[in-house]
Amino acid sequence: MRRKAVHLSTRDWVATCFVAVAVLAFAVWLMGADSDRSNDVRIIAAIVLALGFVASASAVVPGFDALLHGSKVYLAVTSLLGLAALAAGMIALLAEDELALAVLIATTLVLWAVSTLRHSLAARQPSADPAATRRSAPA
Question: Percent of the chain beyond pLDDT 90?
Fold first, then answer.
């Protein structure tokens, strides 16, 4: 039985790198056991929010039109996850809340995983739009 390789677009690789850096920053923060971590919560929350925004913009915004015309359930779920991530990030920033920071990281990871999986599965399926196939074919 032959296994198919996971296909990720350049945009998904870029998003993956940004999310990996966000997770790495959070992991380094978790390992640092200094006594005053409250300011660090704000710094890490700002880093994770910024990197998560860039990851989302790089992987989603270029295909936003297709997203709006695709699965409404997927759009609703990912929108709610995005709002939860934003709310958790704002709470972590404003209240220096470690739990909110953990929720921010968790929702960012779930958003990345769901989006990357969806993009990977969509790349395996032939396009139903012949014009899209012509546009994506190399010149």
Answer: 47
